[in-house]
Specification:
single chain; 395 residues; alpha/beta; Rossmann fold; 2 domains; 34% helix
Length: 395
């Protein structure tokens, strides 16, 4: 069932209540998601994006109830990833000659995924498409936000920015707009989305936000590809992105560890106590990686000014859970953050050295050589860990 966005623009997407993982198994989606597709019915009828392939048959059937498919004049594909373009194959069986407007890179990705030579019309920033009634679609390339093929589409007069992945959230709701949902949940999912997907491209995003501002487009609605649509103060999410893209950090220190026999856990708790004693104003969070969601933890790292990572020594190295998480941190290219290491050992004790090397490789400023403890920490060493926490707080 289509839902009104504004005037002759309707949502014709899919709410996926059951989605738990995304990008394979890489990203957790605790609140499900949506695949937002839009139907513009001016003098020309335009479909903006489609939905993920598992819902292709349902999407085409629903779209057929809303419009004779042969009356669709143009299709806009802002980004070729399958959660946006997945219904194209099913749709194009009905209307194989309909022009598809997208970037040159999107042609490559669409051909590479679906092996079809459809009627592609390549566009670049500033190109326009007349849709009648004095309205135009203006295209804005957004490479690496988050694929090289990405773009946004702006609709004049109605002042709608179809932003694709930018400004979205993995957030399923029967209420389509930002002012109708829980604001805490909304912004929690928005910052998680940014931290886990867009953070590596923050430098690119800063420049793109400046470019969008320079176009001086009046934006009344930001119609994303995932989650709710920003109609109430839509520029609030743009301003949030401006902050997040600028080496973002809050007054927070996050401690993340994994443990074998709870010695490293004890040290984590004592370090946290030391931080709290030295700086009662700082937010301290402690997580056992093996009992936590890694994407939620990435969000906490993104928000932090310092992270403290702990692992016992095993096979002269660290637990593979911590190694994998540090690799994920490296991929996301966080900037302007400090870090430290800690861990217990029985014999050789390499874990802090290995952690520091991986943290440095991930772009973190290393505070010192770390806190090492042989065997299970006794009362004296637990007191030392508290003092180390104070040092972390003052770093």
């Amino acid at each position: 069932m289509k839902k009104l966005i504004k005037n002759n623009v309707h949502w014709v997407g899919k709410v996926d209540w059951e989605l738990e993982r995304f990008h394979g198994y890489e990203l957790s989606t605790h609140h499900g998601s949506t695949y937002n597709s839009y139907l513009i019915q001016e003098r020309k009828n335009v479909l903006v994006d489609t939905v993920w392939m598992p819902f292709a048959k349902e999407f085409v059937a629903n779209l057929t109830r809303e419009i004779d498919l042969n009356q669709i004049d143009f299709i806009i594909i802002n980004h070729g990833e399958v959660d946006h373009s997945g219904a194209l194959t099913a749709l194009m069986k009905h209307i194989p000659n309909t022009p598809i407007y997208c970037t040159a890179n999107a042609v490559k990705s669409l051909k590479g995924q679906y092996h079809q030579d459809w009627n592609f019309q390549t566009v670049k920033t500033g190109d326009k498409l007349d849709i009648g009634n004095g309205k135009e679609l203006i295209f804005v390339e957004m490479p690496m936000l988050h694929w090289p093929d990405s773009m946004a589409t702006y609709m004049t007069k109605d002042n709608i920015l179809f932003s694709n992945d930018a400004f979205g959230q993995h957030y399923a709701s029967e209420r389509l707009f930002n002012d109708l949902v829980d604001q805490g949940d909304l912004f929690k999912e928005a910052i998680k989305y940014y931290a886990n997907i867009l953070a590596p491209f923050s430098q690119v995003l800063r420049k793109k936000l400046e470019e969008i501002r320079s176009l001086e487009l009046a934006i009344d609605i930001i119609a994303t590809s995932h989650g709710v649509i920003w109609r109430d103060k839509p520029m609030q999410i743009v301003e949030a992105y401006s902050q997040w893209a600028n080496d973002y950090k809050e007054n927070q220190i996050t401690i993340i560890y994994d443990t074998m026999w709870n010695g490293t856990k004890k040290i984590a708790e004592k370090i946290a106590l030391g931080i709290e004693l030295a700086d009662p104003a700082v937010v301290v969070k402690v997580f056992n990686l093996s009992k936590s969601d890694q994407n939620d933890l990435i969000t906490e790292v993104f928000k932090s000014k310092q992270v403290v990572i702990g692992s016992p020594t095993i096979n002269r190295s660290i637990l593979h859970s911590i190694a994998g998480f540090l690799h994920l941190m490296k991929e996301l290219k966080f900037k302007n953050k400090k870090a430290a290491a800690f861990g217990c050992y029985g014999w050789s004790g390499e874990s802090t050295k290995v952690i520091n090397e991986l943290l440095g490789d991930a772009g973190f400023e290393i505070i010192d050589e770390g806190f090492r403890n042989q065997w299970n920490p006794n009362e004296e060493r637990q007191l030392d860990a508290i003092e180390y926490g104070k040092k972390i707080a003052n770093a």
